Amino acid sequence: MFSLSKLAVRLPATTVGLALVSATVMGGLSWQSARGSLVSAVQDQLQLAATATGHGIALAVDRAQADFTAVAGHPQVASNFTDLIENLDPAKPDYAGILTAFRAPPSPEARLAFDGTTTNTMYGRRHVKVQEVARKLLSQPGYADLLFLDPNGRIVYTATKGDDFAASVTDPALRDTALARLFEQMKGAGPDAVSFADFSAYPVGGTPAAFVGRAMNRRANVAMGTAQAMERAGYVVMRITPALFDQTLSQRAGLGETGQTLAVGADGRLRGNPPLSTKVAAGAPSSDLGITPGQIAAQAPFSYETPDGRHMAVSAAVPVLGARWTIVAEQSEAEALQAVNALSRMLLLIGLFVLVGTAVLGLIMSRAIVRPLGALTVALKALAARQTLDEVPGFRRRDEIGDIARAVVMIRDVSLEEAAQQLQTTEAARLREEQTRRHMLRDLADRFEVSVGSIVTRVSGAAEGLTGASGAVNDAVEGTSSRSVSVAATARQTSGNIGAVAAAAEELGATVSEIGRQVVQAAGMSAEAVARARDAGGTMAELSAAAARIGDVVGLVSQIAGQTNLLALNATIEA
Questions:
Q1: What is the C-alpha separation between 142 and 247, in angstroms, rounded?
Q2: Chain segment 16-36, per-residue pLDDT in tens
Q3: Are the beta carbons of 131 and 159 closer than 8 angstroms?
Q4: Tens digit of each residue's pLDDT (9 = 90 or more) over 178-235
Q5: Span of 2-16, 319-333, 507-521 with lowest mean pLDDT
Q6: Is 469 exposed, middle or buried (0-12, 13-18, 19+ CB in 10 A)?
Q7: Which of 99, 117, 160, 350 is most buried, taking the most CB atoms under 10 A from its CB?
Q8: Which CATH number fits domain 73-246: 3.30.365.10, 3.30.450.20, 3.30.1330.60, 3.40.309.10?
Q9: In this protein, which residues make up the domain named Methyl-accepting transducer (predicted)?
């Protein structure tokens, strides 16, 4: 089982860990830096596309304004404008026939091609001259119709003769349209000012429509000799569809397969048809594509979710005839950051190679360090165990491990010298201690012998004195017995007392016999004590106690002898 406390594990683990951390940090920083740079580059590219599209839309609007201004000032339009208003009068008897004739063609294209020559009316003859100019104008993409309005807002001419022909901007079908708003603007504008109404739903054409228009003026009939004043004859208007900007929005150079540009109005609705979307068209809210009005209003790079993944987008504001539009350039994040994904895979592979290589080098380097250290550890343990160490591994190396090995050699040599000195010192100390111990034992033995000999001498003297006293007692007893017999023969009258004395003498004899036995026993014990005096110090204590008892017996014998002498004296006296 591996232990983290060992260098054999910690060094490779540390090396691999540092390599992993280094690879992760460097790879992460590289990836983050590359991703940030690529994101910034993509945003710059999208910003460039949005700006270019904004310029394209501005050019398209400027061109449309120029074309409209040219048509409004065309001589045929200017000379026939008032006649068309006057000849399409609901009060005239041919009004209904004119409407029927011009609405008869089944399609807008057919009605545009119909010039009205066959109607044989004054309106038809004036219409022929204007219709030719209108057909040339409407041949351009995005130009949907040309309209003439009288001062009251009644539409007296349209090139396509749709449902708005002969209607009024105050009618329910038109009063909420951009045309009605444009009419109100033109009424308050200057005589040569061009007004614009942004895209909104319109009942003709099936698509949202924007309108650009201006007032048409004529000279008033005044008295001779006075300056002619200008009066407002009506208004000329051009209807524009989102197709005007389709060509500009379809320019997707540099946006890859998923990138596109979108035009969004201030109301959050698309002003053009998205090039890559078949389900969302102009006039739809931008939220149908996943773009919220708040993201557009922020005027900053943003991301949003779509059914096919996350998209990156930037926006750029562009003014369109006074209206504020926003151009949004967007691209799939997966495509935009495809290089980052490739870089991520490359960094991952490089990181793995670096990690594996570092791990292998770490293992090799750790073994090159750990194995010599392990050999030095074994050598140090051998020195600690007082084992013979002939050669220290690694002492020829030129690195730090070699320095450690040479230090171990020095420790070994010093240890050997110290061991030899310690051995000599220990042997000398042992010899001194042995000699001291012998002297001490000899002295103890001598003192013990002297002490025991003195005790034995005293005991022997006491025993001899006891033996002499016992002999004297025996002699006294024998003399007393003889005297007692003679006294018994001569003093019969005291036989009772002498019997008592005899009994006492008999008892005294038994006592003397016991004393003799104890004396013999004491002598044997003394002899045994002398024999064993050299082997047991404890026996001396017993001998001392026995000697004390013997002294007690001697004292007792002395007392008995004294009593016996007294009894004998008394007996003698009595005799």
A1: 10
A2: 777 778 777 877 787 778 778
A3: yes
A4: 999 999 999 999 888 999 999 999 999 889 999 999 999 987 655 554 555 678 999 9
A5: 507-521
A6: middle
A7: 160
A8: 3.30.450.20
A9: 462-575
